[in-house]
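BUG: 3D viewer hangs when loading the predicted structure for this chain

Environment: internal workstation, default settings.
Expected: structure renders.
Actual: progress bar stalls at 90%.

Input used:
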Amino acid sequence: MLLSKSRFSVALSEANLKFRLPAFQSARHYTGPKLMRYILIFWGLPMGFFWGWYFLSYNDINFGLLFFSRVLHDFAFGFYGELLGVDPSAIGPMVARACAVDTLLIFSIFGFRRRREILEWWRARVRPAVSEPGRVPPAE
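Structure tokens produced before the viewer hung:
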């Protein structure tokens, strides 16, 4: 018996060629540099907002807003300290360590994804400049 495609499988393959999944359902749509760009944006913006708030409120540079005042800073860290059962002054260094680990993880993923480009750049910097062919100075 010869193996051949049935009419159903041929119709399915033709339908697959005509029908494409929307972008939000396709996993291939979010690969490559765009994915890393979104990861860096969604990592960097919250870090910037948090640390901007933290240092402005810690130093009571409030621009007339309660949000940036030292009162709200002390309240927020007092609340989290009570919730976690730790000293409120220890929360800042704990968050800094967590952000450092998170940053290390994000940039190691970024470096792994760009390892070929990084290696080419490194080899180009380390490799000495090639001189023109010709006379070579004698070795001493």
